[in-house]
Task: inverse folding
């Protein structure tokens, strides 16, 4: 395993590969970065090779993480796949749909693993959501952050919203039938705030908001689900915690006023609304580091020639939708 690019995210890939190597799960070969000094610093820290070129990194590795600016993803991934190397490319996988299609096809031809870095798919929050909200009817997401020092070569849709687009597509499992989007640039040439409303063939609606000019950080999802158990679920990706609201079962009595006033995070609260008892209970989520789970999935797929949780095809679907939303935003501002 090797890492190409050790910026804010790439250095985390290097850290986790170092941990996996210490656990004898992989051989961590080394690091390449266009800033040779940065590569040397992390190579020394993790006692691996600081490669002088991408070609040298490729020669020493069976699989590589591409954690470089989006504009470089296609050429790097194409070059590596042509050499039959397994590739994890950070999101967004490429700058356009044609490039993404070419990488997917090339990976199939070479029988290589092509994984896309949509890390939220490995968040325990999403795993819980998949199991509980089996018939989502309305989804609302908020992904907000202060202005970044990275990824300013792309707009907020391709930078942040694409995470939620990938989640919603994997979760709803129905074709998108309409998109209505708005966005504005604030501090950069691209949009820095955006909202998109998606309608799916099965009737589900998703409302997604992303901002990189927010004073606070927020990564939340709220889902209204019908089916056997009608519920409203509110989850926080960052804290890996949240609540589910549902109709009380027989025998679940209303909570005391004292308990409601405490409103404790780890306690179940039962309240009366409109003649029915509503339960608010904390969700049972075991906290784990999503990026580590993602890289472990990559390692397992490389070893077994398996299909990753976020395949090239999945990455392309999220990219296509993000590009359509971006197109709407840009055409509206002309």
Result:
């Amino acid at each position: 395993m090797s890492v190409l690019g050790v910026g804010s995210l790439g250095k985390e890939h290097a850290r986790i590969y170092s941990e996996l190597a210490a656990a004898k799960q992989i051989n961590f070969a080394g690091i390449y970065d266009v800033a040779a000094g940065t590569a040397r610093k992390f190579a020394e820290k993790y006692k691996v090779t600081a490669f002088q070129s991408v070609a040298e990194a490729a020669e020493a590795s069976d699989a590589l993480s591409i954690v470089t600016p989006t504009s470089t993803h296609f050429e790097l991934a194409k070059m590596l796949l042509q050499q039959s190397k397994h590739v994890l490319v950070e999101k967004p996988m490429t700058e356009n749909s044609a490039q993404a299609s070419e990488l997917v096809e090339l990976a199939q031809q070479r029988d290589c693993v092509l994984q896309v870095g949509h890390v939220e798919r490995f968040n325990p929050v999403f795993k819980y959501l998949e199991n509980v909200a089996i018939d989502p009817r309305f989804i609302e997401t908020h992904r907000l952050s202060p202005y970044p020092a990275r990824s300013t070569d792309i707009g907020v849709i391709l930078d942040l919203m694409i995470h939620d687009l990938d989640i919603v597509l994997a979760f709803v499992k129905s074709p998108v039938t309409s998109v209505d989007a708005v966005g504005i640039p604030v501090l950069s040439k691209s949009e820095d705030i955006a909202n998109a409303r998606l309608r799916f063939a099965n009737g589900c609606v998703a409302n997604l908001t992303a901002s990189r000019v927010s004073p606070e950080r927020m990564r939340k999802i709220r889902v209204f689900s019908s089916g056997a158990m009608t519920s409203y679920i509110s989850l926080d990706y960052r804290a890996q915690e949240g609540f589910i609201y549902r109709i009380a079962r027989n025998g679940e009595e209303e909570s005391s006023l004292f308990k409601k006033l405490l409103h404790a995070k780890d306690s179940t609260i039962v309240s009366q609304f409109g003649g029915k008892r509503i339960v608010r209970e904390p969700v049972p989520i075991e906290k784990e580091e999503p990026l580590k789970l993602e890289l472990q999935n990559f390692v397992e797929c490389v070893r077994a020639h398996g299909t990753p949780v976020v395949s090239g095809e999945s990455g392309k679907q999220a990219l296509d939708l993000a590009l359509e939303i971006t197109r709407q935003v840009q055409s509206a501002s002309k």
